[in-house]
Amino acid sequence: FLAQNVRPDKRSLHDCRSVLIETNCISTADASAVVKMGATTVTCGVKLEIATPRSPNVKQGFLEIDVILDALSTLKYHSLSSYEQQCVKNEGKALSRCLCDIVLSSDMFALESLCIESEKAVWIIYCDLLCVCNDGNLFDACLLSIVAALRTLRLPHTCYAEHDDLIYVDNTKSNNFYPLSLKYDLLPLTFGILDGKIIVDPTIDELPLLSDVIHVVLNNHGDVIHLHKSGQKNIDFKTLNVILEIAQKRSHELEQILMTLKK
Predict the structure, then answer these.
(1) Which of 46, 61, 105, 128 is in the most buried spot, having the most CB atoms within 10 Å?
(2) 205 phi/psi in degrees, rounded to 5
(3) How many Å apart are CA 183 and CA 250, to the nearest integer?
(4) 138-152 vs 237-259: helix axis angle to the nearest 10?
(5) Is the pTM of this model over 0.90?
């Protein structure tokens, strides 16, 4: 398909799959989102909990991300041995750490905004992601689901009572909630290199063929928040510039999709 510039799913080498995002789809979560990229489908549920801050960051809350990647999420994994299935779960743990590091290091929101009472109480944001169907490029789908869910997150107003050293949460009325203050969105795009050619948004069938995989994350201003390459070969500046140009175009498309979501 390289010679004809048409992939098995009829896309050109630089075409992305269509993205569908739905928010507020899990009634038991404080915020939620479902992202569908082609067949790849990921749900993200957000839950809030109150915790004691850790010294010396007595005004900072916490963010925890957990990606559940099960063998049933893709046909590729159905016949795996118990050892191979454990490797799949470990892949989910590694993706969890990677996503959490990206969100925290991006300064997408200030952890201080999660402070309820200094040295007493802060919010923990738990983002639990479930891969419903893995047809490749989980990185983009997972990060988009986190961003979409956080855009809809509302924190309840709280009150600290000194006389009994307790935090009281007022969630009785809809106007007693306020949005999480986000500075910008994180807009990802994953690339692969196959025989020297750039493959955009690779599927699970294309991934084993790639010599290199590059993850790019931009913000709404076009700044590169994260760029990571894994694989066998170095890439030249010309290839990198092409990748960044495609990522910039994709970021505008994703930004428009996110702007249409109900908050």
Answers:
(1) 61
(2) -75, -25
(3) 20
(4) 40
(5) yes
Helix axes 82-106, 138-152, angle to 10 degrees: 50
Strand 115-117 with 62-68, pairing: unpaired
Token readout for 74 is 């893709």
Q: How many CB atoms lie within 10 A of CB 143?
A: 28
Q: What is the pLDDT of residues 24-44, one digit of tens each?
A: 999 999 999 999 999 999 999
**Block residue for tokens 């989910």:** 92
* Three-state secondary structure readout of the chain: CCCCCCCCCCCCCCCCCCEEEEECCCCCCCEEEEEEECCEEEEEEEEEEEECCCCCCCCCCEEEEEEECCHHHCHHHCCCCHHHHHHHHHHHHHHHHHHHHHHHHHCCCCHHHHEEECCCEEEEEEEEEEEEECCCCHHHHHHHHHHHHHHHCEEEEEEEECCCCEEEEECCCHHHEEECCCCCCCEEEEEEEECCEEEECCCCCCHHHCCEEEEEEECCCCCEEEEEEEECCCCCHHHHHHHHHHHHHHHHHHHHHHHCCCC
Give pLDDT tens digits for 105-160.
999 999 999 999 988 999 999 999 999 999 999 999 999 999 999 999 999 988 88
Residue 261 contacts residue 151 (beta carbons within 8 Å)? yes
Cβ atoms within 10 A of the Cβ of 79, count? 8
Structural contact between residues 253 and 177, judged by C-beta atoms closer than 8 angstroms: no
Q: Which residue has the tokens 């010294």?
A: 55
